[in-house]
Amino acid sequence: MEKYELMYILRATLDEEARTAASEELHKILTDNGAILGEVTEWGLRDFAYLIKDEPRGYYVIVKFEANSETLEEFERLTRHNDNVLRYLITVDHE
Q1: What is the pLDDT of residues 46-73, one digit of tens each?
Q2: By 3-state DSSP, what share of the chain in percent is helix, strand and coil, each rounded to 5?
Q3: Quick check: 84 and 14 in contact, CB under 8 A?
Q4: Contact by Cβ (8 Å): 68, 3
């Protein structure tokens, strides 16, 4: 398994309960497919430099985790169609 870092941006219009549920759903996709979650950092609401899906701001979350390539493929497949997720990016964590 390799170490990765995931940053995702949720809609700013979600209330705290909905935002927590959306985050838990994304984390569950990872863990259900064999990932081991590490540190989760919430950056909170931030303004965008430009509109993303007609939204001027979003709620940023960063997750460090270990997983294999199949886990990443499944996460991307399921997250691509999630309306609460404005953007996401997975990078290899070299730390």
Answers
A1: 999 999 999 999 999 999 999 999 999 9
A2: 30, 50, 20
A3: yes
A4: no
Residue among 64, 55, 65 at smallest CA distance from 34: 65
Across the chain, what does the average pLDDT equal?
94
Residue 34's region, left for phi above 0, alpha for psi from -120 to 50, else beta, is left
Instruction: Provide the pLDDT confidence category of residue 16 given band limits of 50, 70 and 90.
Output: very high
Give residue for tokens 């497949």: 77
Q: What is the pTM of this model?
A: 0.92
Q: Domain segments of the chain: what residues? A: 2-55+66-82
CATH-assigned architecture of domain 2-55+66-82: 2-Layer Sandwich (3.30)
Q: What is the pLDDT of residue 29?
A: 95
Dist CA 4 CA 65 (whole Å): 5
Residue 25: CB atoms within 10 A of its CB come to 14
Amino acid, res. 86: L
